[in-house]
Every structure is written in structure tokens, then in C-alpha cells.
Amino acid sequence: MSLAKFWKRLTDLGIVEIIAIKPNTPDFENFYKIYVDAFPDPSERDSKEWIAEYTSDKYGKESINEGHLVKVIAIKSKKAGIVGFAITETIAATRNTAFGIIWYVVSAKDFFRHGLGSILVQKAIVEMEHIAKEIFHRNYGGTLIEVNDPTKMTREQIEEDTIDPRHRLVFWFNLHFFEADFGYAQPIKPGEEGEAVRYLMQMFRPEYKHWQKSMSIPADEYSVILRKFLEFGIEVNPDKEPESIRMLSEIKSKGEVKLLYSVHKAKGATSRIKAFSG
């Protein structure tokens, strides 16, 4: 469905605004309630205080100087308030390129299956591209996400997931995100106990035409993207953390990171994968 048709559907539902969430506002409280409903386990979501700090004007100015900016993009209804949101981060990677991360995309329960997720992703990408060009003065190379890989999950992990991970993959494939072909594992933050999470994958939606044409990203460029993701997103030192060192070494040895249309990993999903030509 086109962006225009999605927007018409949302307008029909009384949804007329795309806003950036700011702390200490009724919209922030509304947003965080939906966030908690979607992720009742505190270990699976960012704290209210963390998001309030990261979306404040004061922190925004400081983080821009560091080369990254967090924004919560939300859809607001006149009748129901905030009905969906995306937590995003735009990062200046190289002298010429910035990229975006979509950390969460969440719809309020009463608005499932109305196209909110797709419209949020598309609007978030537009906003991150704007930040890349107008704030960081760089081209926008693409968007990175981290999702569960159903082929690496146990039956118990799949059953405990908030959404069937196969359906989630279909959603992202339909929005032209592709699996980044390397052995990704999410490192453990300093001071935390446990092991690296190995049932995840990184997916990337390229905006550069040459990356789209080759369906790959050169190793030196993806290494910078991964380094910035680990540094700002996971908050580890990629030059000292063992899993980070392993991943960067693997990418260097490959020479490139291929972008795979690995739809076989969504086998069994009832939602439909649209035909892809690329």
C-alpha cells in the first residue's frame, strides 16, 4: 500500500498528526503507557527516566555534538491521543554518511492491523534522513534494525516473544529491509551479567543506489556503522569487547556485508510477503 493510501486510512481513523515526543508533557505520559503495555517486562524496555533524558532539548544539543540524536516519532489521534510510536536514533558515521536506527515500533492495542507500523517506519525514515542532511550535513545511507531470528530461537523463546518472529520478519521484508550477512550477536553491557544474545540478526534498508544495486555494503563502511551502533546503542567499546572484536574481524575478512532477502526464515508465517524486485 502506498504512503498516500496509508495516510488516508489513518485520517479516516481520526489520526492527523505526526509529532516528536518531548518529556514532561501529556503526550510523553501517553506514549510511555503504550510502551509499558507492549513491553511489560522492564528488562525489555528503556526506563522512563532514560527516554526523558535522551529526548530532552538539553541532551539533544549535547548528543548532536557527539554525532547522534534520539527521537521518538509518534502518531496522534484527536480522539485517542498517542496511538503508535517509533524510537529512532540518527548517527553520523563517516565524513559523508549518516544512518538511522529504529529501536522500537509499537502500535496501541486498539489500533493493531491498521497500517500504523508501516506508516511509522516510513515517517521515521523521512525524519532521520532530514536529521542527517540538516543537522549532521551528511547523506543518508540507510536504516538499521535488530530483530529476533526465528531460525536461531528455541521453541520456548518463540512462544515467549510478543509477536511471532516470522510475522515480524515479513513486516520488515515488505518494507525493504534485508538481513546483514554476518554472525551478529548483541554484546553484554559493561557491568551486566550473562552472555551475548545470539538469536538476533541485523537488518538494513539501503538508501544509496549503489548499495541497492549490489545488495551489499563494503566492509570498511559497514564496520563504521556497526562500531557506531555498538558505541551509542549498546554502549560498549568495540575495540575492547570480545564479541564486537569478533564481528568486526569477520566483516573485514568478508570484504563486504551482503544484504540477503532471506525469506526462508519466515517460513510458516500466515502474513504475506510481497514480491520483491531488486
From TrEMBL:
<dbReference type="InterPro" id="IPR016181">
    <property type="entry name" value="Acyl_CoA_acyltransferase"/>
</dbReference>
<dbReference type="InterPro" id="IPR000182">
    <property type="entry name" value="GNAT_dom"/>
</dbReference>
<dbReference type="GO" id="GO:0016747">
    <property type="term" value="F:acyltransferase activity, transferring groups other than amino-acyl groups"/>
</dbReference>
<protein>
    <submittedName>
        <fullName>GNAT family N-acetyltransferase</fullName>
    </submittedName>
</protein>
<feature type="domain" description="N-acetyltransferase">
    <location>
        <begin position="19"/>
        <end position="206"/>
    </location>
</feature>
